[in-house]
Amino acid sequence: MNHLSDAFKFKITVCGDGAVGKTSLIKRYTSDTFEKDYISTLGMHFSKYEEDVAGEKVELLLWDLAGQESFGSLRDRFYAGSSGAIIVFSLAPEELETYNHVGKWLSDLREACGNIPIILFGNKADLVDQNALATSPDYTTSDVHVLKFAQDNKFIKYYKTSALSGQDVEEAFQTLVIKLYQRATI
Ligand code: G3D
Ligand code: MG
Question: What is the extent of the structural domain holding 180?
C-alpha cells in the first residue's frame, strides 16, 4: 500500500448556511465511499476521499457542518488547518437569501485561514429554471452578478452545481483539488 506524502493530504472545509446542500454535494462527489467514511462528531462531519491528480494520489478530508451552521461558533476546530474551502449557497428561488450570507462565511474563513483557495458553489441549479427571475440580469444571483462578486472577492471560480442531478459537482471539486495540488507542488 502506498503511503501518501503529507504534501498531498488536504483538508477542505465546506461552508454555507443550513440546507443549501453541503452534505449532499459531498455525498455526490465521494459517491460510494460516502457511507462508510462519513463520521459525525461535535456538530461536524468529515469524510475521507482519494482523488487522482496528474497521476498522483491526493487524500482529501472533507469537513462539513452538521446542523449548527452559524458563523463563528465552531470556527477554531472547523477551520483549523484547512488547505482550501468551498462556500455553498442555494440557487433555489425560496433560498436565495443564503447568497447574502456568503460574504460572512468568506470573512470568517479568511480570518481563520488567510489566503487559502476558496471556490464558490451556487447549488440546486436544477431548481433555477422554475423561476425565470433567477436568470434575469438584474437579479442579484444572476450569473453576471455572482461572477463579478466571485472575481472581486478572489474566489478561484464560481460553479452552478446540482447535488441532485450531479451537474458540475465533480468538475467543481476537482478544480479546487487541482489548485491545491498545484500550490503544494510549486
Ligand atoms: P446541508 O448539508 O447544507 O444542510 P443537505 O444540506 O445536503 O442536507 O440538503 C438539504 C436539502 O436540500 C435536502 O433535502 C437535499 O436533498 C436537498 N438538496 C441538496 N442539494 C440539492 C440540489 O442540488 N437540488 C435539489 N433540488 N435539492 C437539493 P431534504 O428534503 O432531504 O431536506
Ligand atoms: Mg449537512
Answer: 6-185
Q: Does residue 21 have its Cβ closer than 6 Å to ligand 1?
A: yes
Q: Is 10 within 8 Å of 180 (Cβ atoms)?
A: yes
Cβ–ligand 1 distance for 18 under 6 Å, the answer: yes
Cβ of 124 below 6 Å from ligand 1:
yes
Residue 1, domain member (yes or no): no
Q: What is the pLDDT of residues 4-13, one digit of tens each?
A: 556 699 999 9
Give this prediction's pTM.
Answer: 0.91
Q: What is the pLDDT of residues 102-113, one digit of tens each?
A: 999 999 999 999
CATH number reported for the structural domain that contains residue 165 in this entry: 3.40.50.300
Strand partners, 47: 62
- Number of domains into which the chain is organized: 1
